[in-house]
Amino acid sequence: MLKFTVPGEPRGKGRPRFVSTPKGGRAFTDGKTASYENLVKLCARAAGAKVVDDHLAVDITAYFEPAPSWSKKKIAAALANEFRPGKFDVDNVAKAALDGLNGIAFRDDKQIADLRVRKFFATESRLEITVSPIAGAQEQSDGVLRDKAA
Asked: Is a pLDDT exceeding 70 seen at residue 119?
């Protein structure tokens, strides 16, 4: 199992950018997203991440700080989970985190069979990620069910 924290405000995966070239064009990831994915890689490596071939369960929890301009009452309500952050779609938060882990904690994100993503308010912004192998997972390809242990 791999468990680690990425400090700072979580980011969602940005939309791909396109550039025209003489051969048609190419897509690339914007700089802020690329920097955040690299931060995820660094934190995962520091936590001892190793590439595995198993099916995986990934739990991602994003914590956002309430706006300092909010009233004390609204901040207290946010920290008590009376409402949740609206910033970044959870699928984009997951995509940025998983793209950062690709090749670091797993070979390909198709290995992920169980994914949970949540957003909360907290006094300190961060992203907490847990990657766990799924025991006894079975693999199916070409219509044939195979036991991973075999």
From this structure: yes
